[in-house]
Protein backbone atom coordinates (compact mmCIF):
# COMPACT_ATOMS: atom_id res chain seq x y z
CA UNK A 1 0.00 0.00 0.00
CA UNK A 2 1.09 3.60 -0.44
CA UNK A 3 1.88 5.83 2.52
CA UNK A 4 -0.71 8.31 1.19
CA UNK A 5 -3.43 5.80 2.12
CA UNK A 6 -2.59 6.18 5.83
CA UNK A 7 -1.27 9.74 6.13
CA UNK A 8 -0.89 13.17 4.62
CA UNK A 9 2.09 15.49 4.61
CA UNK A 10 3.41 19.06 4.73
CA UNK A 11 6.88 20.43 4.12
CA UNK A 12 8.99 23.36 5.23
CA UNK A 13 12.51 24.50 4.50
CA UNK A 14 15.38 26.39 6.05
CA UNK A 15 18.49 26.79 3.94
CA UNK A 16 19.46 23.41 2.54
CA UNK A 17 17.41 21.50 5.13
CA UNK A 18 13.90 20.24 4.46
CA UNK A 19 11.39 18.99 6.98
CA UNK A 20 8.54 16.73 5.98
CA UNK A 21 5.73 16.07 8.42
CA UNK A 22 3.73 12.86 8.09
CA UNK A 23 0.35 13.01 9.83
CA UNK A 24 -1.83 9.92 10.25
CA UNK A 25 -5.40 10.22 9.03
CA UNK A 26 -6.36 7.90 11.89
CA UNK A 27 -4.34 7.67 15.11
CA UNK A 28 -4.79 3.87 15.11
CA UNK A 29 -2.16 3.72 12.33
CA UNK A 30 0.50 5.59 14.29
CA UNK A 31 2.17 2.52 15.82
CA UNK A 32 2.26 0.76 12.47
CA UNK A 33 3.94 3.75 10.83
CA UNK A 34 6.26 4.05 13.80
CA UNK A 35 7.43 0.51 13.06
CA UNK A 36 7.79 0.75 9.28
CA UNK A 37 8.38 4.42 8.39
CA UNK A 38 11.96 4.75 9.58
CA UNK A 39 14.47 7.49 8.85
CA UNK A 40 16.42 4.91 6.85
CA UNK A 41 13.51 4.02 4.58
CA UNK A 42 12.71 7.71 4.01
CA UNK A 43 16.35 8.38 3.10
CA UNK A 44 16.41 5.39 0.74
CA UNK A 45 13.15 6.43 -0.91
CA UNK A 46 14.40 10.00 -1.50
CA UNK A 47 18.04 9.03 -2.17
CA UNK A 48 18.20 10.87 -5.49
CA UNK A 49 17.58 14.17 -3.71
CA UNK A 50 18.65 13.82 -0.07
CA UNK A 51 22.42 13.93 0.38
CA UNK A 52 22.58 14.36 4.15
CA UNK A 53 21.27 12.78 7.31
CA UNK A 54 17.57 12.05 7.86
CA UNK A 55 16.30 12.34 11.43
CA UNK A 56 12.82 11.23 12.55
CA UNK A 57 11.02 12.96 15.39
CA UNK A 58 7.99 11.19 16.86
CA UNK A 59 4.88 13.12 17.88
CA UNK A 60 2.56 10.47 19.33
CA UNK A 61 0.22 13.02 20.90
CA UNK A 62 -0.87 14.13 17.44
CA UNK A 63 -0.16 10.84 15.61
CA UNK A 64 2.54 12.43 13.47
CA UNK A 65 6.22 12.34 12.58
CA UNK A 66 8.59 15.08 11.51
CA UNK A 67 11.47 14.08 9.27
CA UNK A 68 14.38 16.51 8.97
CA UNK A 69 16.35 15.94 5.77
CA UNK A 70 19.80 17.47 5.53
CA UNK A 71 21.33 18.59 2.25
CA UNK A 72 18.02 18.06 0.47
CA UNK A 73 17.46 21.27 -1.50
CA UNK A 74 20.41 21.50 -3.85
CA UNK A 75 22.15 24.13 -1.75
CA UNK A 76 19.02 25.93 -0.55
CA UNK A 77 16.41 28.25 -1.98
CA UNK A 78 18.78 31.10 -2.76
CA UNK A 79 21.50 28.84 -4.19
CA UNK A 80 19.57 26.35 -6.28
CA UNK A 81 18.21 26.59 -9.80
CA UNK A 82 15.88 23.67 -9.11
CA UNK A 83 12.27 24.11 -10.15
CA UNK A 84 11.17 23.08 -6.66
CA UNK A 85 13.67 25.02 -4.57
CA UNK A 86 11.46 24.79 -1.46
CA UNK A 87 11.05 21.02 -1.75
CA UNK A 88 7.25 21.08 -1.70
CA UNK A 89 6.97 18.24 -4.23
CA UNK A 90 9.04 15.95 -2.00
CA UNK A 91 6.04 15.47 0.30
CA UNK A 92 4.17 14.00 -2.68
CA UNK A 93 7.19 11.85 -3.51
CA UNK A 94 7.27 10.54 0.05
CA UNK A 95 3.53 9.79 0.00
CA UNK A 96 4.23 7.41 -2.91
CA UNK A 97 6.38 5.20 -0.67
CA UNK A 98 5.26 1.56 -0.71
CA UNK A 99 4.66 0.19 2.78
CA UNK A 100 3.51 -3.03 4.34
CA UNK A 101 -0.21 -2.76 5.14
CA UNK A 102 -1.13 -2.54 8.82
CA UNK A 103 -2.51 -5.59 10.57
CA UNK A 104 -6.27 -5.76 11.09
CA UNK A 105 -7.12 -3.15 13.69
CA UNK A 106 -4.33 -0.84 12.61
CA UNK A 107 -1.56 -2.00 14.89
CA UNK A 108 2.02 -2.69 13.93
CA UNK A 109 2.81 -6.10 12.47
CA UNK A 110 4.42 -8.67 14.73
CA UNK A 111 8.24 -8.61 14.59
Describe this structure in words.
With about 110 residues, this protein is an alpha+beta fold. The chain has one domain (about 5-75, about 85-95): Alpha-Beta Plaits (2-Layer Sandwich). The chain has helices at about 30-35, 40-45, 90-95; strands at about 5-15, 15-25, 55-60, 65-70. The mean pLDDT is about 85.
What can be said about this structure in brief?
This protein has 111 residues and is α+β, with helices and mostly antiparallel strands.
Q: Which secondary structure elements does this structure contain, and how are they paired or packed?
A:
Elements: E1 7-14, E2 17-24, H1 30-36, H2 39-45, E3 54-59, E4 64-69, H3 89-95
Pfam family, one: AtuA_ferredoxin
Domain AtuA-like ferredoxin-fold: 1-98
Protein name: AtuA-like ferredoxin-fold domain-containing protein
Amino acid sequence: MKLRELAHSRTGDKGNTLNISVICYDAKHYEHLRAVLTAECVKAHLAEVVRGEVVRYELPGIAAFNFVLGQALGGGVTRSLALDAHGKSLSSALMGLDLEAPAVGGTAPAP
